[in-house]
UniProtKB/TrEMBL annotation:
Pfam families: Dioxygenase_C. The keyword GTP-binding does not apply. Signal peptide: none annotated. SUPFAM superfamilies: Aromatic compound dioxygenase (SSF49482). This is Protocatechuate 3,4-dioxygenase subunit alpha. Residues 41-113 form the Intradiol ring-cleavage dioxygenases domain.
Length: 194
């Protein structure tokens, strides 16, 4: 009779990754559009921990509307064809904690909200994913100040959700904890009384 207990490898308990690194990334995962496309933008940055050290094994996922503000509902996000925008992408960080997406500038999904990219972070030591938003520098004066989420934050915390323009596109660094920690969101049940 075989001893099953000695044939099984130990598995992780309450943790996320870095066990996903071999299975979840796929070709073109961070390219929501082709890099050479005329309206493509680069969204990039670095993920750091509470000590300011780079996180080399995080996995980031983004969801966003298209430039017209439409939430894309097309199948096939895992099969990139080079021209269909699906509004979803995934990117693993490199050894220096850096990441990069090629995407489109999102449009407004409602008159009340500034355009944003939804971001989820999976990383070692996290018991659950972290969720936040990335707002790009405003195209219309006052659109960031009028956004309900940004307006609800203390003024000194708002900048942790706003990317900055640079020579390579838009830079958005994530600080998982500590000084200048990125604001992370808690999503609960939908409320219909607003």
């Amino acid at each position: 009779m075989r001893d099953v207990a000695t044939d099984l490898a130990p598995t992780p308990g309450q943790t996320v990754g870095p066990f996903y690194g071999y299975a979840l990334p796929y070709p073109g995962d961070a390219e929501l559009v082709a890099p050479g496309r005329a309206d493509a933008v680069r969204l990039h940055g670095v993920v750091t921990d509470g000590e300011g050290a780079p996180v080399p094994d995080a996995l980031l996922e983004i969801w966003q509307a298209d430039p017209a503000g439409a939430v894309v509902a097309r199948p096939g996000s895992l099969r990139r064809d080079g021209w269909t925008f699906t509004g979803w992408g995934r990117c693993a960080t490199l050894d220096d904690g850096s990441y990069s997406f090629t995407t489109l500038r999102p449009g407004r999904t409602s008159d009340r909200q500034a355009p944003y990219v939804a971001l989820t972070v999976f990383a070692r030591g996290l018991l659950d994913r972290l969720q936040t938003r990335i707002y790009l520098p405003e195209e219309r004066p006052g659109e960031l100040a009028a956004d309900p989420l940004l307006a609800a934050l203390p003024p000194e915390r708002r900048d942790t959700l706003v990317a900055t323009a640079d020579d390579d596109g838009f830079r958005f660094d994530l600080r998982l904890q500590g000084e200048d920690e990125t604001v992370f969101l808690t999503h609960g049940p939908a409320r219909h009384d607003r």
